UniProtKB/TrEMBL annotation:
<dbReference type="Pfam" id="PF06224">
    <property type="entry name" value="AlkZ-like"/>
</dbReference>
<dbReference type="InterPro" id="IPR009351">
    <property type="entry name" value="AlkZ-like"/>
</dbReference>
<protein>
    <submittedName>
        <fullName>AlkZ family DNA glycosylase</fullName>
    </submittedName>
</protein>
Length: 353
């Protein structure tokens, strides 16, 4: 790596916006956006569709994003930290080979408490394989089939069974029926290949992470993947195509040659809930103050609201269709009148539903 470049926080935030594809948008399709970023957090399906669309070439619609899932170019699965992510078939396999067993271990006690023993999982898998052999199925259909065969689905049991079968590489979320996403079999080229080279996958994914989320720390990457810090640090140390930068005394990494921030402020960027510009890092202090984070995550339920970014700094939350007599945003104190007007214009011209 070359000698560290010292960056101001403003410069670092602008570089993150650019790396994330939220300014100076590239001429990319939905599949190209996700392939570039490896995976985008996707437990909120409408939000991740929007997160992909706003990083695509201008004019890309939510229907275009759904079409990429319909064609099999994009998939959604529990790839890391026990959380749903939108990704590509290739990276679904790669991520599961790196993280799947670790996630399984963390879930074992929950599954034991729910009475989901090996016999239950085997029976659930057999029913799922037969159902998916005929094509895509909805969650409701799979639940009905399990109940007919005496597989317990009460409470959260059905959900946990789906997660386990997804971690085992049996199924994933794929095409759409209207706005509902269906499950399909993970088979053939999409299957989890545990005989490959996880080390090579980790190298490739680490490079992509810093190219699309940098400047960021190695600890950010380890947290994002849900992997121990020591092996991640060792892998990153072997990657030549990274540049070290320093932001307020902290060492961060990004793609080599990318540390040339734009001089001008980046303006307003609106992102949906759970967006990677907020959730893609363990330490969110560069982008958001504690006050700003409380507007986006006001409760303890882990739900992240849509965020307003001003020159890369999180300044509040927004809504496309506010209730009567309510403003379309909630901002932290100290935002200038002209910036508030720019935020209002951005919300009024939002094109993604």
């Amino acid at each position: 790596m070359s000698s560290p470049v010292v960056l101001s926080p403003d410069a670092a935030r602008r570089l993150r916006l650019r790396a994330q594809g939220l300014v100076a948008r590239r001429d990319l399709s939905p599949a190209e956006v996700v392939r570039r970023m490896v995976a985008l957090q996707g437990q909120d399906l409408p939000a991740v569709l929007r997160a992909i669309a706003i990083r695509c070439r201008p004019g890309t619609t939510l229907d275009d994003v759904r079409a990429a899932f319909d064609s099999g170019e994009l998939v959604r699965g529990w790839t890391q930290r026990g959380t749903l992510f939108a990704t590509t078939p290739r990276d679904l396999a790669a991520l599961l080979s790196l993280t799947g067993e670790r996630v399984r271990r963390k879930l074992r006690k929950v599954h034991a408490d729910e009475g989901l023993d090996d016999d239950v999982v085997r029976r659930a898998a057999a029913v799922a394989r037969e159902a998916l052999a005929d094509g895509a199925v909805s969650r409701a259909t799979l639940m009905d089939l399990w109940q007919q065969e005496g597989v317990p689905t009460q409470g959260q049991r059905g959900y946990h069974l789906i997660v386990m079968l997804a971690l085992d590489g049996l199924l994933h979320w794929g095409p759409f029926a209207g706005t509902q996403q269906l499950m399909v079999a993970t088979a053939g080229a999409h299957a989890v290949d545990r005989s490959g080279e996880p080390r090579g996958d980790l190298h490739r994914i680490a490079r992509a992470y810093f190219a699309t989320r940098g400047p960021a720390t190695v600890d950010d990457l380890a947290w994002w993947l849900g992997l121990p810090k020591t092996p991640v640090r060792a892998t990153v140390a072997e990657i030549p195509a990274l540049q070290e930068v320093e932001v307020e005394g902290r060492a961060m990494l990004m793609a080599s040659g990318a540390a040339e921030p734009d001089a001008e402020a980046a303006g307003v960027a609106l992102v949906p809930g759970f967006d990677e510009i907020v959730l893609g890092y363990q330490d969110r202090g560069l982008v958001a103050s504690k006050e700003a984070m409380r507007t986006v995550v006001p409760f303890t339920n882990g739900v992240f609201r849509p965020a307003v970014l001003l020159d890369g700094r999180l300044v509040g939350t927004w809504r496309r269709a506010p209730k009567k007599d309510e403003p379309p945003f909630e901002l932290i104190d100290g935002i200038r009148a002209r910036d508030r007007k720019a935020i209002e214009r951005a919300i009024a011209t939002w094109k993604h539903g």
